[in-house]
Amino acid sequence: MEFRTITEDIAVSPQIAAGDIPAIAAAGYRAIICNRPDGEGADQPNVEEIEAAARAEGLELRYLPVVSGKVADEDATAFGRALRELPGPVLAYCRTGTRSATLWSLSQAGTMQPAEILQATQGAGYDMRGVVRRIVNGGRTPTDTGDASFDVVVVGGGAAGIAVAASLHARKPHLEIALLDPADIHYYQPGWTMVGGGIFEPQTTARTLGSLIPRGVHWIKAAVAAFEPENNAVVLDGCRVVKYDRLIVCPGLKLDWHKIEGLVDTLGKNGVTSNYRYDLAPYTWELVKGLKEGRALFTQPPMPIKCAGAPQKAMYLSGDHWFREGCLKDIDIQFMNAGGVLFGVKDYVPALERYIEKYGATLNFFHNLVAVDGPAKKAIFAVAKPDSEPTEVTVDYDMMHVCPPQCAPDFIRVSPLADAAGWVDVDQSTLRHKTYENVWSLGDVMNAPNAKTAAAARMQAPVVAENVAADIDGHAPRAVYNGYGSCPLTVERGKIVLAEFGYGGALLPSFPKWLIDGTKPTRAAWLLKEQILPPVYWKAMLRGREWMARPETVAAD
């Protein structure tokens, strides 16, 4: 880990882990400030884990979470107060350290000259010129001019962001394209179901983000704070401003772990796990292997969520393991679904119901997980069945796989780009913004009524790239997205029900029925998921090679 010293009293750091605490104590730090809200990243430990380790080493911890890019004056005041109250020296951390450096800079605005703030933070490796500009402008970040300007700015370095940047760069190699994302690591999240089933090793699903960004595309390693589309501007952490001619918005979803009371305190222990977090997927497999009898709960929150089939994929692979081990008869499998159907496209339901019967699983519809008592191993569900009074039930468990509630990130929900529900407001065919004609969106945060999957992003990226290229050439959008999404439902080890569908639940199979009949479990679909799709993801999709993803086009104007 890195200690980036600003003054003798304060240093900042990127995200730390519980295992770093002994080194922090040995370096002489006596207190820690956490400025990163839980649930920002798929590989992020919760602050409770950090606090327990700090307490064991005699360090104090103060939790002052600030949403990325949303540093308010009152946050800076609280940070300055914490520095006065905590024993020093203090180490503050967030995702990259930028938020903590910003908070310190703003907290010193009344006692230090701007040049002194700049010098101290530059010595720690942080550029606070934007923060100083905010200070001298009375707390406002002007966006009429910018720190940098590009032909196209892509927000988000996940599957959608890298894929669309690569596809656009292949079409227009001379464009100045910038990709904005603060993460160090990029994850192949569809592989986490397989990690939780003991099939993939977790490290095979992770690569450095820098190694995946297309050559010729500029990587700005920073989080977005706000959009000002009227000025064609994006405001970053640290109050820097990036200007654009065209904007493509595709960050991932926010996993709202805290929406379930008590969940954060017990994740990764007390038999509670989730394949939606990189570091917890191996714990899923550990629990599955260790359970010989008892009750296993698998939860699914209200829609929308990324990969709507993932909660039941975990259930099927677990049930298959217990079936093979001969202990299934002693395990009570309960699927707790906040919705009212097993799967949203009815053509695939009969095949799935046969596996529900095989594993003896009980389907509990309209059951939404609202609280967890980890030490007591009790889960509380709000039950809201149609034509019935709402109630709550408490269910004992020995193992529980949780799918967290999900929503668009805060900087999307509060932006001018969002609709009333908080999603980027696009035309569902062209993926162009309905209000701002130089803005497009794809992936999980836009409001087209399609499944939120990596397979959907694979189809959307060429559509957006084609339409942005057409716009640059002075033409109307000519590529059309049909709502395609795919959900390979891992019903047992070695067989998959390959659900492929578009808008309105229309079946959109990629293969002839004699090769893969998506409505039935097949070995061929398993081989596709296990052996073919990962290399297609890494070597084709993220490199702009549009294998089986060339966009449908209409006549140009």
UniProtKB/TrEMBL annotation:
CDD domains, per database record: PTP-bact
Domain Beta-lactamase hydrolase-like protein phosphatase-like: 2-110
Required co-factors: FAD
One GO term (biological process): sulfide oxidation, using sulfide:quinone oxidoreductase
Key words, A-Z: FAD, Flavoprotein, Oxidoreductase, Quinone, Transit peptide
Domain FAD/NAD(P)-binding: 150-268
InterPro entries: BLH_phosphatase-like, FAD/NAD-bd_sf, FAD/NAD-binding_dom, Prot-tyrosine_phosphatase-like, Sulphide_quinone_reductase
Iron listed as a keyword: no
GO molecular function: FAD binding; hydrolase activity; quinone binding; sulfide:quinone oxidoreductase activity
Record-linked PANTHER family: SULFIDE:QUINONE OXIDOREDUCTASE, SULFIDE:QUINONE OXIDOREDUCTASE, MITOCHONDRIAL
Protein name: Oxidoreductase (Flavoprotein)
Native species: Salipiger mucosus DSM 16094
